[in-house]
Amino acid sequence: MSPQPTTRIPEILKTHESSLLNEWVREQTPHLASQRGRISDADLREQSREFLSLFQQAAQRGRLDTLQDPAWREVLELLNGISQSRAKQGFTPAQTANFVISLKRPFFARLNQEYAKDGAGLAEETWRATVLLDELALHTVTSHIKMREEVILRQQEEMLELSTPVVKLWDGILALPMIGTLDSARTQVVMESLLQRIVETGADVAIIDITGVPTVDTLVAQHLLKTVTAARLMGAECIISGIRPQIAQTIVHLGVELGDVITKATLADAFAVALQRRGLAMTRAAGR
Amino acid sequence: MDRIPILKMGNILLVTIQVDMHDRLALALQEDLTERISTTGARGVLIDISSLEIVDSFIGRMFSNIAAMARVLDAATVVVGMRPAVAITLVELGLSLPGVRTALDVDRGMELLRVSDERNPVVHVAGTEDGGALGAS
Amino acid sequence: MPSELHKQMEIRTSSDVVTVRQATRALAERTGLSLVDQTKLVTAASELARNTLDYGGGGTVQVEALENGVRRGVRLIFEDQGPGIANVQEALKDGFTTGGGLGLGLGGARRLVNEFDIESTPGQGTRVTIARWK
């Protein structure tokens, strides 16, 4: 490992900490002006103050040429926290990166002051500082994007759950009314949750109703069949109901083998079969 | 080597698999069950796999072998409690467990064996290459 | 790199196959794979570990956590110096019950993972690489 080149960055940060903070906060404010109300002045100041303090400590203790150095861990964690909360508040990645980038102008001004007579030294330190701050800014962007992706994923899952409820029709009989176009990913998730519900409720019959599904492609048909087979392996029986004429045509056309999977035209028919399987029968009340 | 315990309940042998079995343990179970069916004249074997997180082709074949050997000795076999993730994986693997009937839990498994005791033919899980539908009950 | 994220294990006995399953499960869980994906990967690992033992005369497996940008996954590399497979295409065909695929279950294992690669030279050995991504 090459020896740390001498640098006055940590010292300069320490000496000018409070004036740097003031200028930096002022520097950020115009960018956030359009976002007024999403982050309070007090919060902004506190975040900036904390960053500067940790930044100074890390620069003191660790290497300036790599963020992998353990000394930077706390700074990176702070940035993760800030970019994630900004992501949640609706800021763009660029706006969040600007948190770090806007530190450049005030900091370079200080460097300029301290290295007034030393052109080479100024160039070297400025380069060092800009590379470091750029890396930190990029880190916030990555963190920000990751957070957004997690939010989107969670929203997708919630939508999926809401859009395909598994309903208990009777003791031991579940129904899964599917509505809308099915894509491979959605079908897979829904099927997994059906199998899980079968175990949880101890249902040995599950009716998958596809009345509300306009079209089915090979992949989806295969997923349906796989689900039926998996349910069988677990000891439950699936009935597929609500197959529209177009879907029936597609299934035959695609050459999908339904084998001996029970299919019924309507959910009602399927329910009757399910009751039968469970040895139940409906009787009319006396006097009607 | 530890062996998996086999309980006798009436004329049914009950096995609960709770450990991640290595192959020799699985083979020992097969042997032990065959012997116990023979000596006790049991009419049914119930294997509870609700604790099993993994069923690979070896274990799958073990179940089929047990079912086949039990059948020769005039006993039926039911495997109960398969977890959804295991079922999904088995389907993807293309394993169909021929000759093995399944049920959701021990209660239903016992019910199946009781019904089967009334001299029903052993049935195949539908969807295998040998064809065959679920037997009448 | 921390040792739990990259492990090499011997496959010499049937107990080793269990150890491989458990190590794969632990790493898959740690990587954040869903329960179904974990199960698929561990099952594939079990199949391949068994092949290494039964047909390869014993060998090794490397279990590794992967990170590709924001994507995370698990990779396993099974290696043996056994007899090798003469006809890989034939081996990849399905069929536990029909007896096709040479009984190696490679076709099935392939369906359980996102990435599958096999190199084999008769008389020299076999190397199978599988990976599952989150």
Task: Give a short overview.
Chain A is α/β, with parallel strands linked by helices and 288 residues long.
Strands of chain A, total number:
5
CATH-defined architecture of chain C = 2-Layer Sandwich
CATH class categorisation of chain C: Alpha Beta
Estimated radius of gyration of chain C: 14 Å
The secondary-structure element order of chain C is EHHEEHHEE
- CATH T-level fold name of the largest domain in chain A: Globin-like
**Sequence stretches where pLDDT stays below 50 over 5 or more residues of chain C:** 96-100
Quote the distance from N terminus to C terminus of chain C: 21 Å
Shape estimate of chain C = globular
Low-confidence stretches of chain A: none
Gap between N and C termini of chain A, in Å?
A: 93 Å
Number of helices of chain C: 4
Report the top-level CATH class of the largest domain in chain A: Mainly Alpha
Strand content of chain A: 5-15%
* Structural category of chain A: alpha/beta
How confident is the prediction overall: mean pLDDT of chain C?
Answer: 88
Elements of chain A, N to C (H/E): HHHHHHHEEHEHEHEH
Q: Largest interface, by Cβ-Cβ below 8 angstroms: which chains and how many residues each?
A: B-C, 26 and 28 residues
Structure notes:
The complex is a heterotrimer of chains A (288), B (137) and C (134). Chain A has 2 domains: 9-160, Globin-like, CATH 1.10.490; 167-277, STAS domain (Transcription Regulator spoIIAA, 2-Layer Sandwich). Helix content of chain A is 63%, strand content 9%. Chain A has helices spanning 9-15, 17-32, 41-61, 73-89, 93-101, 104-114, 119-163, 184-201, 218-234, 245-254, 267-277, and strands spanning 167-170, 173-179, 205-212, 237-241, 262-264. In chain A, strands 1-2-3-4-5 form a 5-stranded mixed β-sheet, with helices on both faces. In chain A, α9 links the parallel β3 and β4. In chain A, α2 packs antiparallel against α6 (104-114) and α8 (184-201) runs parallel beside α9. Helix content of chain B is 40%, strand content 16%. With 137 residues, chain B is α/β, with parallel strands linked by helices. The two termini of chain C are 21 Å apart. Chain C has helices spanning 14-31, 35-54, 88-92, 106-111, and strands at 6-11, 59-68, 71-80, 115-121, 125-133. Chain C contains 4 helices and 5 strands; from the N terminus they run βααββααββ. In chain C, 37% of the residues lie in helices and 31% in strands. Chain C has one domain: 2-Layer Sandwich (Heat Shock Protein 90), CATH 3.30.565. The A-C interface holds A 142, 145-146, 149, 192 and C 36, 70.
